[in-house]
Specification:
The complex is a heterodimer of chains A (328) and B (318). Chain A has 328 residues and is mainly alpha-helical. Helix content of chain A is 77%, strand content 0%. In chain A, α1 packs antiparallel against α12 and α10 packs antiparallel against α12. The longest helix of chain A has 39 residues. Chain B has one domain: MetI-like fold (Orthogonal Bundle), CATH 1.10.3720. The chains are: A mainly alpha (328), B mainly alpha (318).
């Protein structure tokens, strides 16, 4: 019973936040100065005949009042994933199509690198918190603080200078070699060698974050009375750590990892730019440079919803892994 | 002490005002705090780096702004290189080399330190004020206000900050004040949550209840009891947010959203990257501003962690 109420509550909250995000997105792009038609079709503007412009005007509902007319129209269109048409980056194409075309490349990069940095960060964090102040803890703490202090793009530039420019081990950017004559396993290796440096950058950049989160969470738990009790019962230290401390310390870490997803996305934008890796991050930069507002707005919406969904998944996972939520 | 000893001449207790007593207490508290802080190696390293960079930033006011313009570059100023061989690698004349316009990277880095630090400090002041206000109000008032404020906070926590900042910068235009405002207004939710948690625990203390029983109003309770007790947490968190604000400024500038009329470390890296410094191997142009960002952010982070260890009793008592 408790679980059900918890789940319904969390899903309800996520839906309210989604409504917030959509409303925010709507008003954000309504404070743009100037004629929205001109802004949304900049570049393609001259090619539109007066009838086409009138058609677009009706589609966007510019002639209606901002609220509720335009607002309801926008909500309806957005829920049907009709986010308008890109004006400059991919002239005439649906924003949704353009975005989802590039998404797999970013998901591949961000997914694998985040998984790696979570694994490394959490394991080092457990060890560091357990042996607080030891040689291992001090060195991984120093390393984590340094990694945390390096902006992702600076790390990328340094790795690029070192491994691509100086040592010449990896290509300097892109998704694959431009020649396009590679097939099968050769092409796969080509793609992987292009993805390696951006992957390494994103992995290294977020190890520090996850290490610090896991370590401090474990330190909090180790101060709890049930740990003292477990030790007083004469349980072996390893057992106390594995069965009592780590299990509980992982709980807040799950939430914090989900929240950090927004930062990982931000990192993907700058890192994709450094390595000219053609994912949604680089695309949002191109949309920004060209002031392709429709694409920019759509990308922002998808990013926000992505983080929202990641947080919802973390909340649902919580219900599964934390018995206190289940029985509450 | 023996009882039959002659009573010690006690100096007549000087009459001290409340203010004097308060200041004496503060001095003692600070001395105790400093004694603890000094024992943290991380904290001391951070403090030393920080003082160094604040010194650099202060010295930047002696730089003649006209020496930063491209027209001030002469054949002597870029010797031993020539206009054809720019950017010039480090040499005796320009110890950190020059950029593609022949300007000294050292001068630019010093000039950039001022703006980067100012952006970091002012943005985190905005963060601190909003975060503290929202956190204290939510924690102290509770009920509906708490729910409403925390929903808003959760909403801002979920919005990915860089895409939001990009959209805002694209809409609002590029200048240093917009940049500061964007960073300040997008990074307060973390502070608000932290302050709320601390407020909730302070609120439960019996002296708060007592002062309310004595008829203290809400604003008196908040300003006399809640705020002073929450302040250390806010302070430690602000030090950490300065680091985040400097990182944010550099990322936005790298994406070309910085103020084009001002030199910051971020805009330097942006200019070097756009000019193809990586492919021509002009590492010196990128290294100095990059290293400066990393060191300053590291310094603030180290100081923040050292403060946190002292202030957060849960960690300290172990």
């Amino acid at each position: 019973m408790g679980t059900q109420r918890y789940l319904v509550g969390k899903i309800g909250q996520a839906l309210i936040t989604l409504l917030f995000i959509l409303t925010f997105n709507f008003f954000l792009f309504r404070i743009l100065p100037g004629d929205p038609i001109r802004l949304l079709t900049k570049g393609a503007g001259q090619r539109l005949t007066p009838t086409e412009q009138q058609q677009l005007r009706e589609e966007l509902g510019v002639d209606r009042s901002v609220f509720p007319g335009q607002y309801l129209l926008y909500m309806g269109q957005t829920l049907r994933l009709d986010l308008g048409v890109s004006s400059i980056v991919a002239p005439g194409e649906e924003v949704t199509t353009v975005f989802f075309e590039k998404l797999p490349k970013t998901l591949f990069l961000v997914g694998t690198s985040t998984a790696a940095s979570i694994a490394i960060g959490v394991i080092l964090g457990i060890y560091g918190g357990w042996r607080r102040g030891g040689a291992m803890d001090m060195s991984s703490m120093t390393g984590s603080l340094v990694l945390y202090s390096i902006p992702e793009f600076v790390l990328g530039i340094m790795l690029l200078l070192l491994f691509s420019g100086w040592l010449g081990l990896f290509p300097s950017g892109g998704f694959e070699s431009a020649t396009g004559d590679l097939t099968g396993i050769d092409r796969l290796f080509d793609i992987l060698s292009h993805a390696f440096l951006p992957w390494l950058t994103l992995t290294l950049a977020f190890i520090g974050e996850f290490y610090l989160v896991m370590r401090s969470s474990l330190l909090d738990v180790l101060g709890e009375e049930y740990i003292s009790l477990a030790r007083a019962k004469g349980l072996r230290e390893k057992w106390v750590l594995r069965k009592h401390a780590v299990r509980n310390a992982l709980l807040p870490t799950v939430t914090l990892i989900a929240l950090s997803f927004g930062f990982v996305l931000g990192g993907a934008i700058t890192v994709e730019l450094v390595f000219s890796y053609p994912g949604v991050g680089l695309q949002s930069f191109e949309a920004l440079e060209a002031r392709d507002y429709a694409l920019l707005q759509g990308t922002f919406l998808f990013f926000s919803v992505g983080v929202l969904v990641a947080n919802l998944i973390a909340d649902l996972l919580y219900a599964y892994i934390d018995p206190r939520v289940r029985t509450a | 002490m023996k009882l039959d000893e002659a009573p010690v001449e006690v100096e007549p207790t000087e009459v001290r005002t409340g203010r004097q007593i308060r200041w004496a207490r503060r001095r003692v508290a600070f001395a105790r705090f400093w004694a603890q802080y000094r024992r943290s190696p991380f904290g001391m390293v951070g403090l030393v780096i920080l003082i160094f960079f604040i010194g650099v930033a202060i010295s930047s006011i002696f730089i003649d702004p006209s020496s930063l313009s491209k027209t001030a570059v002469t054949e002597e100023s870029i010797a031993p290189c020539t206009f054809a061989t720019l950017p010039c690698p480090p040499n005796a004349n320009n110890p950190l080399g020059t950029d593609a316009d022949g300007r000294s990277v050292l001068t630019l880095v010093i000039e950039g330190s001022r703006v980067s630090l100012i952006v970091g400090f002012t943005a985190s002041v905005i963060t601190m004020v909003i975060g503290a206000l929202v956190g204290i109000l939510a924690g102290y008032l509770g009920r509906t206000s708490d729910t409403l404020l925390m929903r808003t906070t959760d909403f801002f926590l979920v919005i990915p900050w860089l895409p939001l900042a990009i959209v805002l910068a694209a809409i609002l235009g590029q200048n240093i004040f917009v940049l500061i405002a964007i960073i300040g207004f997008t990074s307060w939710p973390g502070t608000a949550r932290l302050v709320r948690a601390q407020t909730l625990s302070v609120k439960e203390h019996s002296y708060v209840e007592r002062s309310r029983a004595l008829g203290a109003t809400n604003s008196q309770v908040v300003s006399r009891h809640i705020l002073p007790n929450v302040m250390p947490v806010i302070f430690a968190n602000t030090i950490l947010t300065v680091a985040i604000a400097i990182l944010a400024e550099s990322a936005l500038s790298f994406l070309g959203l910085g103020d084009p009329r001002r030199v910051t470390w971020g805009t330097m890296i942006d200019a070097a990257f756009d000019a193809g410094a990586i492919s021509i191997g002009a590492w010196w142009w990128l290294l100095a501003p990059s290293l400066s960002i990393v060191l300053v952010v590291l310094a603030f982070t180290l100081c923040g962690y050292a403060l946190d260890e002292i202030i957060n009793p849960r960690i300290r008592e172990r």
